[in-house]
Amino acid sequence: MLQQSQPSKPMSATRSMNKNPKCDSPEAKRIVIVDDHPLFRKGLQELIHSDASFAVCGEASNASEAMEVIRKLHPDLAIVDLSLPGANGIELIKNVRAEYPKLPILVLSMHDESLYALRAMRAGADGYVMKHEAMANVVQAIHEVFNGRPYLSPAMAAQVITKFAHRQAEGEVDAVERLSDRELEILELIGKGNEVRQI
Question: Which domains does the chain have, with CATH numbers?
Answer without folding.
Answer: 21-152 (3.40.50.2300), 155-198 (no CATH)
